[in-house]
Amino acid sequence: MNKFLRYSLSLVLAFVASVTFAQEVTFDFDKDYKTLFPELTGTSSSTSKDGDITKAMACTINGISVAVSAKTSGSNENRIWSSSPRLRMYSGTLTIQAPADKKIASIDIINNGKWNDNNKADVGTNNKGSWTGEANKVVYTIAGNTQIKSIKVMLAGTKIEYTDAASVKELLANNKEAKDYINLKLTNAKVLYVNSYKGIVNTYVREGDTAIEMRTLGIDMPVNSIISGTVKVNLAYDAGIPYLSASKETNGENLKITESNEAAEPVIATVKDILDGKYTNDLIKIKEFTFSKEEYTTGKFNYYANDGENKIMIYDKFSGIGGVSKLTEGEKYTLTGIFGVIFKNIPEVLPIKAVEKFEPTGITNITTDEAAKNAPVYNLAGQKVTKAYKGVVIKNGKKMIQK
Known about the structure:
Number of strands: 30
Distance between the termini: 74 Å
Oligomer: single chain
Shape: globular
Structural class: mainly beta
């Protein structure tokens, strides 16, 4: 009997430990908005108001709740968008609350590039929606256009365990959906491009034949530098495009970052390649395409790269650096940029420099075989290598195997 009592007591203690052990939950409006807010009669686009939040709504996961107030005045209502799904708020309050006997330790609000800096949390510290402190309830006052993709809430005392990933390629191969707390190993990863856009630092890195975006990790990784070592990150997906974000313990302490002046070579790609999902987050060059544009609202246009029946969008995200709005319809151009966005199921290439008018090579280039043969050779990290190097290389903008 005593043995049975001791065993029963151990089970009770284990149960108590499990229920008092803190949790982490994610409210994913990108994937689960219909489940989170089933009382919505429909969904909303930029013009439709079927998804307007006309009354206060709340959702709860594992005892943690998120409540959204209805906007009471003005033309823009708080709403759920169906195109690139997200919770879009213009005013009111966003309340995150733990069970009565729990404390929230941190809140991470993942936004779609829109976070109004006048938004305020009532307690703790607040930076672009990320909150740390200790409170049973945190209330954000929304002061302007704010687009929220997901809200991650961690309770006090949560134990974090990281999963090792030996490379970017292995990470993406094994995780087709978002995954938090990854200890990622990088080996001679080349920084392709760095840009700060609306408070988000976009750092694109190529390791071997696979590229990834590192988004606002807080680590100085200059363009063209080589990175080796390990870093703790979270993996997320935005419309099918993967990116890495900062985790609770992200820092550069275990990374070796070697600066370089040698730029990475872009991979030569076609419009069809991008439609097929190749070269995600990589530096590419589309040598010849026909430009077109379509007006989607008065005075505003979407811009496209066309190759026959194939078409992708050109999005001049990086402060208009590509000069896309000044291009001529029907003319042929060459574009160097990053394939890092899918919007409304259409792949977008982001120019990293001015789009150039395509110039046919002409008959004189037929005699350039010797020059092509002696062209410099680069490994997949963008480093120049000799003829003695064996493996996959880039020569004349094309991937090939050097034996």
